[in-house]
Amino acid sequence: MGFLPLALPFAELEVGQHLYWQLGNLKIHGQVFLSSWVVIGALLAFVLVGSRKMERDPRGMQNLLEFLWDYIRDLAREQIGEKAYRDWLPFIGTLFLFIFVCNWGGALVPWKLIHLPEGELGAPTADINTTVALALLVSLAYFYAGLSRKGFRYFEYYVEPTPIMLPFKIIEDFTKPLSLSFRLFGNILADELVVAVLAFLVPLLVPLPAMFLGLFTSAIQALIFATLAGNYIGEAVHEEHH
Amino acid sequence: MTSWLLLGATEGGLFDLDATLPLMAVQVVLLTFILNALFFRPVGRVVEEREGYITTSRAEAKQKLAQVERLEADLREQLKEARKATQQLIQEAEQDSDKLYRDALATATAEANASREAARREIDAQREAALGQLKGDAEKLGDLIVDRLLAAK
Questions:
Q1: A131 in Cβ contact with A110 (< 8 Å)
Q2: Which residue among B6, B20, B29 sits closest to A28, beta carbon to beta carbon?
Q3: Residue range B52-76, pLDDT digits in tens
Q4: HSE (side-chain half, CA atoms, 13 Å) at B104
Q5: Which H or E element spans position A182?
Q6: Touching check for A214 and chain B: CB below 8 Å?
Q7: Interface confidence (ipTM) of the complex
Q8: Which residues on B lie below 8 Å from A16 (Cβ)?
Q9: Residue A242: pLDDT above 70?
Q10: Do the beta carbons of residue A54 and residue B42 sit within 8 Å?
Q11: Distance from CA of B68 to the nearest CA of A (A)
Q12: Within its chain, how far is the Cα of B62 from the centroid?
């Protein structure tokens, strides 16, 4: 492959190589599941420790958990609205927390110390399967939210305010998951690549600013994903006042 | 080492969609239920209980404050009335003592006047008596002188 002069160093990054596990005749990406189990385990451990002994006067980890809960509630309430946000708070919160720990886990855990026979460990959100799965869940969620709350009146949303909007609204149903998944995937993968390339070229100090920037974008991406998910659900359950 | 972007390749590549996708979706849905049971519900209950507790405590405190203010106003009113009553009492007492003093003064003055009058009258009577006697004595003396002078002639 001579199309890149830098092909040699890039080869070390093993982008697009996966550790395949065979489930029957299905193939899955083992490294994505391994790292996702690690970050989910960390998240669950944190939640378990923090909520073990909750009191009215919070102390220690309970403060952090309550802060997170409050933050997620504000996010969900602002996007979905006072009436329906309670039903969707766990979903929005899980999206936010899962993406956040995946992104930060990919940046902060020294995965390189563990050698896999193929592929390499990293943020689960740097794999297109994960982000598409999350985005499709959001699509299902807002369809379900709209249909369960308004029945078939939900489809009035497609012709409001005028029927001219119909094709655009239909296209939106496809662009929403597409943009959600590719935004997250692209940002996280690009961040990992930038850090990896910089670390490969100049191992010390130089990658640090890129790493901090990566942490920042990681957090922002989690927030954007959760906010947009809430926004889509809020749009679906929104009652038009005639 | 082949292309690092195996776009659409049969094996591997960046956009390699396979059974990872549905399994990851199931995993995230499971995580949603687990987190709901472990985190969102219990923490939400604690936070909302506290919010309720704070709201009721504030309402109670407000009520108590209103009660205290009412009591304070009541006590202030009572104090004012008590002060007024005291003032009146003092005034009445002063007036009473003033009257008593005047009465006593008047009685004493009247008594003094009466006794002075009596004394004057007695003096007058005694002077009258003394004058009468003096007059008598003078007449007797004058008669005696006349008698003696006439006898000597």
A1: no
A2: B20
A3: 999 999 999 999 999 999 999 999 9
A4: 6
A5: helix A166-201
A6: no
A7: 0.86
A8: 4-6, 9, 12-14, 16
A9: no
A10: yes
A11: 29
A12: 24
Angle at which helix A128-150 crosses helix A207-237, to 10 degrees, equals 20
Token representation of residue A8: 């040699």
In angstroms, rounded to a whole number, what is the distance separating the alpha carbons of residues A177 and A140? 10
A163-202 in b/e form (b: 16+ CB < 10 A) is eeeeeeeeeeeeebbeebbebbbebbbebbeebbbbbeee
pLDDT for A193-226, tens place per residue? 888 888 888 878 888 888 899 899 999 999 999 9
Q: Indicate the Cα dihedral angle A37, A38, A42, A48, nearest 10°.
A: 40
Nearest to A35 by CA among A88, A99, A102: A102
Higher pLDDT, A77 or A3: A77
Contacts of A115 (CB under 8 A, 6+ apart): none
Cβ(A195)–Cβ(A107) below 8 Å: yes
* Residue B53 confidence (pLDDT): 93
Tokens describing residue A221: 């991406």
Residue A7 to residue A1: CA distance in whole angstroms: 8
* Rounded-to-5 percentages of helix, strand, coil across chain B: 85, 0, 15
Output the pTM of the full model: 0.75
Give, as one character, the DSSP assignment of residue A16: T
